[in-house]
Structure formats: C-alpha cells, structure tokens
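re: the backbone from monday

yeah here it is again, tokenized this time
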C-alpha cells in the first residue's frame, strides 16, 4: 500500500522517472536543493508557530514538491490537525506515507498508528501551479504570506486608513506596519477606549501620549502621530525586528528587553501573531525617500 501511494504522490508532481524507479529512489536526495529547502522549511516552521497557517502550508508544500520528507511529514500533519484548511485526511496520509517511505521516523510512527489510512487523494497545493524558486526567494527576506490589514474595513473608517498611509512615511514607518498595528489595536476606530484607558486609533495609554506630546489622544491626527513616533522609536531600538517591535508596542519595551524577545505573555504572543499575519514580514521594510523628522515631538 505504501508503494502505491508514494508512486501516486510522485506521478502527481510529474516525476515520472521517480515513479518508475526502484522504491528506495522514489524520494529525492534532500541535499539537492539544500539552500532552497532550508529557507522554505525555516519560513514554514515560523509561520506555523505564529499561526499563519496558509503561509506554513505554502512553504511546506513547496519543499515537499522538492522531495523533502520533513516537509511532506509536516504538511501532512498540518492537514490532519488543522481541519479548517479543508484537506481530506486521506490526502494528508498520502504525504505522510511518502515521508515514511523515505525513512522519516515520525511519519513511520504515525502511519503505524493510522493503520494505512491513505487514499488516492492529493492535497490541492501539490497539483496546482507553483513557482517554487520565487517562493524561496521571498523566504530569504523573511516574508510570510500576509492578510490585507484593510480587508473588510467599513467605508466610514476609510479616512482613518488614508490618514495612517499619508503620515507613516514621514516617520520612517512602513505604512503597512502602521496599518497592521492600528487594525489589531482599534480596528481603525478613532474613538476606541480600552479598559486600561488606551485611546484612539493607535490606542495610546496616557504615559505614551505624554511621552510623545500628544495633547488630545482622541484627535485622530495627533493620535496617529503619537503612535507613529512610538513605532519609529521602537524600530530604531530593536533594529527593525518586527516581532520585538510589535511585542513592545503591546507589552512595553522594558518587558521585551527583560525577556530578550517576545515575552511569555499569552496576550502579547497572540498580539504579535496577529500583527505578523497582517504585516507579512519579520523585518521592517525600508521606507525610501522618507522625509524623516524629529520624532520626539508630535505636532498638534
């Protein structure tokens, strides 16, 4: 049964030579595309840890298409445990069967427990067109598949989106990062007030508002300028590391410094995951041609 499913897997990828070869040759040498595969796997693992499931699926699938057994195993396991991805269990088991045949211990153990539950189904990502090398190039820069931070925003809040997009470059902040923060913080509501008295679009607490000279935190432009000033300071402090910047915006830079990274707070970890899903990269993109100004003062 394993032999039939591995051949089905290879044929679906157009690897006719592999399907016709002896069984031990049906899985490609994983060192052939080592730099590409390693980049894809690193991005896939990070995306899965952050909960960016589509990003993890795509990276694992690209590496699986290159014959990497760890990618086949991880992709199959992702489909088995994340039913929301909509891939039948039989298709997931086909991937795991291929990894097991290549000698992957975890896959062999899972196959033994499942009792050969594979089918003739294959995950859609294996039969759809995919530019693996282009995807690998984007992996090198730490890119993750991302969600539009303005998706589903009501027309009444479109002006708030435009305000952030207009002001962000002047502070050296990528507008998309500012939009991601505002989406997670307030859903672009300029009148939002949290139980901790964080206010406005960028949810400035009183101490942060005072720190960046924001006199009226419920004035949208003052609020955005204050939030951008803080983001700009955080980007310089944490050398453009978006994970630490987002964590600091939520939990304070002191906690990030104390823990040397994202603090082990459930709220902060979920916050970082959501910001990363909207921003789509772990490193801040340079803002070309930005007219950088003194960020210590926010003009009213």
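seq for it, each position gets an aa:
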């Amino acid at each position: 049964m394993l032999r039939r499913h591995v051949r089905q897997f290879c044929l679906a990828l157009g690897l006719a030579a592999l399907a016709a070869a002896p069984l031990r040759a049906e899985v490609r040498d994983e060192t052939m595309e080592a730099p590409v595969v390693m980049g894809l796997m690193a991005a896939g693992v990070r995306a899965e840890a952050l909960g960016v499931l589509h990003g993890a699926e795509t990276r694992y699938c690209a590496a699986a298409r290159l014959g990497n057994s760890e990618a086949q195993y991880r992709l199959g396991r992702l489909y088995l445990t994340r039913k929301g991805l909509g891939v039948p269990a039989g298709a997931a088991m086909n991937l795991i069967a291929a990894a097991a045949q290549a000698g992957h211990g975890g896959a062999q153990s899972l196959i033994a427990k499942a009792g050969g539950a594979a089918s003739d189904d294959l995950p859609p990502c294996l039969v759809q067109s995919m530019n693996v090398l282009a995807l690998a190039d984007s992996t090198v820069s730490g890119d993750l598949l991302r969600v539009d931070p303005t998706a589903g925003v009501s027309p009444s809040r479109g002006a708030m989106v435009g305000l952030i997009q207009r002001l962000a470059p002047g502070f050296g902040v990528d507008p998309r990062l500012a939009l991601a923060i505002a989406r997670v913080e307030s859903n672009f509501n300029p009148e939002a007030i949290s139980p901790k008295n964080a206010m406005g679009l960028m949810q400035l607490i009183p101490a942060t508002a005072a720190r960046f000279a924001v006199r009226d935190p419920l004035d949208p432009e003052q609020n955005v300028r204050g939030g951008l000033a803080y983001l700009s300071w955080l980007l310089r402090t944490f050398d453009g590391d978006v994970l630490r910047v987002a964590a600091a915006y939520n939990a304070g830079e002191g906690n990030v410094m104390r823990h040397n990274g994202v603090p082990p707070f459930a709220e902060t970890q979920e916050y970082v995951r959501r910001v990363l899903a909207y921003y789509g990269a772990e490193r801040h993109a340079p803002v070309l041609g930005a007219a950088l100004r003194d960020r210590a003062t926010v003009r009213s």
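The longest helix spans residues 220-237. The chain has a mean pLDDT of 79.
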